[in-house]
Amino acid sequence: MSIRARPELYLLVTLAVLCLGLSTASPEFLTPGNLLDLLRNYSLLGVLALGELVVLISGGIDVSFMAVATVAQYVMGSFIATYQVPSAPLGLGLAVLVGMILGIGNALLISATGVHPVIVTIATLNLNYGILIFITGGRWIHNLPVAFLNFGQQNIWTGTTSEGTVYGLSNLTVMWLGLLLLTWWILKYTIWGRWIYAMGGNPEAARRAGIDLVRTRLLVYRYMGGLSGVAAFIQTQLTQMVQTNALVGRELDVLAAAILGGASITGGSGTVWGATLGVLIVAVIRNGLILLKVSSYLHEVVIGCVLAIAAAVAALYRLGPTTRGTRELPT
Amino acid sequence: MEAARGRWKRSAPCSLSPLTMRTPLLRAHNLRKQYGGVVALAGVDLELWPEEIHGLVGENGSGKSTLVKILTGVVRPDPGAEIWIQGSRFSSLTPSDALRLGIQVVHQDLSLFPNLSVAENIGIHLHLHHKFLVRWPQVRELARTVLARIGIQLPLDEPVGELSIADQQLVAIGRAIASSARLLILDEPTSSLTRRDVDRLFAVLRDLRAQGMAILFISHRLDEVLEIVDRVTVLRDGGRVGTFDRREVDRQALVRWMTGRNVVRSAPAHTTGGEVILEVVNLTKRGQFERISFTLHRGEILGLIGPRGAGRTSLAVALFGLNPPDFGEIRIRGRPTRIRSPEDAVRHGIAYVPEDRLLQGVVARQSVVNNLLVTSFPQVLNHLGLIDLSRRRTLTGEAVDRFSIRAPSIEAPVQTLSGGNQQKVAMAKWLLTRPEVLILDGPTVGIDVAARETIYGLIRELAGEGVGIVLITDEVSEVLGIAHRILLMQRGRIIGVLENKDLQEQDLLSRLRSA
Q: How far is A270 from chain B (nearest CA, A)?
């Protein structure tokens, strides 16, 4: 019962075991430098997993966010580069705006057609990305102003090891943490969040209770779109340029992390802690494989195994100790 | 009217003004609804008083659901209708009118959020009234007050999906009360409750009645209707047969009014002395059932009655190979047999029609013909292993005729059929395999009186042909009406085997309750 209610506990233990194992296998792993780098590099997937989590809780699914982020990244990048805008917040705001607009498009399409969101967002993934590539020819943007790019290089706090190596808590990581808290707060303490859980749990009952499903869906996909915009900004800061082909294709990493974290694809359940732990587990495994110098061809195999095991464990405790056909137990 | 009210008037709780006591909570006149050429409701009157539990009975298609939809504002009645509620006159209601006036429905599916806590389910409407931020203390406080009012203790933070169906039902009622219901409409509230849970539900309803609430109680289970209501309105073919005081009616009369004909409960024929076809010896599955022994003869209808949770279904699925027992023996025609899968069971001539029709009994979205043939597919293949369309049609046609399955066409999805016809499909599919033992789990749950009679007729006919039938039910009148012998099951054990001769309903009821 306690495990069923708190899959996060499982994940936390898994993460701890992984960290423990890696720290004995590789002395580099448990250094502040490595861990803080990890958090910086995975802030992209972390932010997107928060958005996908909200979509999954509502009973939907979104696979278009990487295309949305790419479009947002390009619009932001060309604006910043063309006018040599030195302001990171302005760029962030623009990317979020573009993301939200495309997210609203997703919501409207799903509500208007009644088609399953996976189909709709596959369509918008291709549409958004296809149009972008058609117009831009897949051009990269390199000439971003240094004042803009500095944001991602700066730390909010910096430390030095005894050997003199500098490490720090990146602005990007702080953004991820901030959005984590924001998402948690929205889901738990605002009526929007509760509508989202209600709609995911039983859409018909939500409708009968007077919850506006179209409006709730709009909130959900707009939020996902907004976070895709944030991700676009983070990706630009990480790579210091806009690459039109860097994001699309990585959708499943985000979905996998959210589902690994306990979100159900049938809707209604999932927490920000679970989704974040899901991202961290994937991050630590990949980082560990690199530190252990495992062939990069094997990385995907290992990640695949982890997901398969996680799915099996989830299925086991969802079924519980009873087996098929024996719903009725003596009282 | 005053006199009629007096008969079931109870002592007035102080919270109600004398004015509310003297006027009905709701008076509806000439409710009529026509869809295209079909008359769903043909000018029905209804009067509901505070402190009244009012039964609404009628067969499927008699207009009950249309009536409820009009009262809740989902459907507009045709012009000419009058609805008086607390002194205001309406010609039709909107959903928000209905909510504002305190009309709340607990749907059969309960419309709860399984992923949300008890407290939040009860206080869900606060999420619509609160401005942006959820005030959790207020949500919990409301839930606590409501549960105290109906005298029930439930863990406030437990997800509703983890509760029993009975507790979920109380949460749904609690939610209606939390939205200040004055008229509570319950649609088939007992269809999945155990007898003990029904008692608890009824205690809650009586309590609410004493607090001044009007309750419209819709059910197919006439025994329970008669047990709880003060008055009962009978609908037939969209019209009102009448509204009767509880003391004026009995089960027979209700059935007569609902169906328009006399359904006589035929006493079951004597037990056939046929060969023992199934024998179960000491069958045990720990935690589910223990030392179950019984015999089933050819042509015998064996009633297996007991409350939900007694292990009836666990036992049935064990016989069908879905729930391997720990030890004990199953003998078929005297020979010890291991049944480890449904395939084994079918090979040994055992068929099982589960209780949950839509989820387990039929493939709801598939056509009637595909459902019927799913068990006997090889029979319609030609020598090339391809489907022989004419054989497919003949076989289906025979089954449809024999079971008088009413469907728009054999290609219609099963989910478009009425509950009774769905059940006939679920049974017919197995009968095409010519089973020797047929296990029926709750074959009439949620099915109206006329369709029930057809199903009973079918069961008798099958028994007449030599099929041994195990009939699982929790309705006493059902086993008394049809079974030759009755097994009483309680807490995983068989506590008695009775010959259905000179058995009285009351005796059986009290044996079940005392156990």
A: 10
